[in-house]
Amino acid sequence: MKRLKRLVLATVTLLFLVPVGLGQEHVVRVALYNIKFLSTAVTGQGDRRGKLQEVIDRLEADVIGLQEIKDRAALNLIFPSSQWEIVIDDDSGSDQDVAVVVSVIGLPSNLDADDQHFLFPGTDNNSFFPDRRDLLFVEVGLPNQTDTFFVMVHHAKARVGGRATTDPRRGGATRDIVAKLKERFEDKNFILLGDFNDNPMTDHST
Q: What is the pTM of this model?
């Protein structure tokens, strides 16, 4: 298997899709989707549920990183268990959880994410990563393949409150992420997905 390029995908809108080459026989389609406060209330929000499912179907993605998810019950309404495996922290209580859903490729079933699945568990980094909106990461692999890669999902602090207040939090999160990736994943295959709530030209040097 050819070594994966280390990829970072960011979105300030809703959706991003990229094929990741895993050799000549396999291409993994990886998508990022901030669904915007998905909860079980979606069943009473007109045709929103049907439209979300249509978008998911059209993506034809193998892996999707998600933001702003209430809980597993909400995801089960969009991602049927017969087709998808879901990774989310079942105990967080936040309505802005990050999650990963995987189709086709290998992953433990219905994984309840805990501290070992976050790069910054606990409360030490809450200013930079509120409510576990940091880096959920899971290891996945293709059927009949021994090689694996890590999928990581981040949801940065929004700009609400103004840049003077929020830029240091996003900048601090970025520096911590880069340091952690160099420390733990330098020799590994990974793809980092994120709603970074910013544009790539912002100067966070201060």
A: 0.81
